[in-house]
Amino acid sequence: MIIFGSKQCPDTMECLSSLSKAGTPYEFKDIADLPALKEFLKYRDTVALFDSVKANGGVGIPFIIKDDGQYSFDWTV
User: Residue 76: its pLDDT value, please?
Assistant: First the structure.
């Protein structure tokens, strides 16, 4: 599982904490790092899941790519 987010985002930090407590393995990509930001923006520009987020002025983090390749904003385990 890959998590795109920001260490400054409370939702991202809650997501990471929840996954860690559950023992769920993940790779965190902090969008404060330029390569991670560029990768995140490619998804944000092309994945329909972001349509309503963008329409409401949101960023869309934490953004999750599950092991099966599905996209989600839901980190509950």
Answer: 79
Rounded Cα distance between 3 and 56, Å, is 22
30: nearest Cα among 60, 64, 55, 5: 5
For residue 12, the model assigns a pLDDT of 96
Give the count of alpha carbons within 13 A of 42, CB side only: 5
CATH of the domain at 28: 3.40.30
Query: What's the token pair of residue 29?
Result: 């990509």
Strand-pairing partners, residue 3, are 28, 64
29: helix, strand or coil: strand
- Whether this prediction's pTM lies above 0.70 is answered by yes
